[in-house]
């Protein structure tokens, strides 16, 4: 009946469902591909009784490299072609606002720093600097040591924003540099600027985090500290220094901007597959972290499926955010959703 129902439908309408897959703890654990991941994606690529592609995207709080580089690696790991239009990582959403900072110096943190600078430049940032640039700085060398003589004057332009793109590798250096930039109004070594959240002084340096994950699942037996833990460390140090909490912007799952961005991408994916702009009837988020994947999907009125191959495990008791379904793994999650829709 499933085949008959779908084949009659598939002639006149695209599949009414689409998927958003988390990566770490759902498809991968570190470098290891989880057992049912390849089969699950092949099913959506058309290897199913209906012989029809079902739209899907990958929606991760990971990052640190270009979307192009990560898609190439994911395609070879997962055995299907992952295109950049199907891939959203923690800082992809920043592409939309990079033009606002085109000629302003910004600090970008996280991952392998030469790579993260290249990602920022690919988004349109013209003066993206890393904490290693700041570290290289000394009275004889400007913070932006690769700056040309003609641009030397602009080096005195304050850093206008700090973007934590990916998980920082050297928390001590990065917390130190973020505090230096904020407490000098953007010019390290400049006159100190007092920040007091109780006064009405404008924060002169924006602070943007792209991934709130306190923990995530790699191939170690227990979840690992993520960018959300780094954010807690920064705020604790800044509070100890100033008695204030510095305001910040948060992107990444479960935030509303990231899920709205993902919904747009999926709608375009449906249009590119089937040439129609109809609103998606049901989006299934398959995730391993109740605080990011399930919380965000539920808030976005998607259907949420929590798998047992990542951060969440039953010995923690019930998840903090209730999924529509609990699956052992991503393979079971995909078939449960398809059968639920037909
Ligand atoms: O750094 C990546 C980690 O925070 C989580 O990644 O794929 O589970 O959203 P993911
Ligand atoms: Mg995950």
Describe the structure in your own words.
This is HAD hydrolase. It holds the Pfam family Hydrolase_6. It comes from Laccaria amethystina LaAM-08-1. The chain is an alpha/beta fold. Helix content is 34%, strand content 14%. It has helices at residues 2-12, 37-44, 67-78, 113-123, 131-136, 171-182, 227-242, 256-274, 290-299, 330-341, and strands spanning 17-21, 28-29, 32-33, 56-59, 87-88, 106-109, 128-129, 161-164, 206-209, 215-216, 224-225, 249-250, 282-287, 303-307, 325-327. Helix 2 packs parallel to helix 10 and helix 6 (171-182) packs across helix 7. The model is unreliable at 138-155 (pLDDT under 50).
Secondary structure: elements and pairs:
Elements: H1 2-12, E1 17-21, E2 28-29, E3 32-33, H2 37-44, E4 56-59, H3 67-78, E5 87-88, E6 106-109, H4 113-123, E7 128-129, H5 131-136, E8 161-164, H6 171-182, E9 206-209, E10 215-216, E11 224-225, H7 227-242, E12 249-250, H8 256-274, E13 282-287, H9 290-299, E14 303-307, E15 325-327, H10 330-341
Parallel strand pairs: 1-4, 1-13, 4-5, 6-7, 6-8, 8-9, 9-12, 13-14, 14-15
Antiparallel strand pairs: 2-3, 10-11
Bound molecules: SN-glycerol-3-phosphate and magnesium ion.
Residues 22-25, 60-62, 167, 211, 213, 216, 226, 289 line the site of SN-glycerol-3-phosphate.
Shape descriptor: globular
End-to-end distance: 9 Å
Query: What's the SSE pattern?
Result: HEEEHEHEEHEHEHEEEHEHEHEEH
Mean pLDDT: 87
Major sheet details = 6 strands, parallel
Low-confidence stretches: 138-155
Which ligands does the model contain, each kind named once?
A: SN-glycerol-3-phosphate, magnesium ion
As a percent range, the share of strand residues is 5-15%
Structural class: alpha/beta
Number of strands: 15
Helix content: 25-40%
Give Rg in angstroms.
Answer: 22 Å
Instruction: Please state how the strands of the largest beta sheet are arranged side by side.
Output: 5-4-1-13-14-15
Q: Quickly count the helices.
A: 10
Organism: Laccaria amethystina LaAM-08-1
Pfam family, one: Hydrolase_like
Protein name: HAD hydrolase
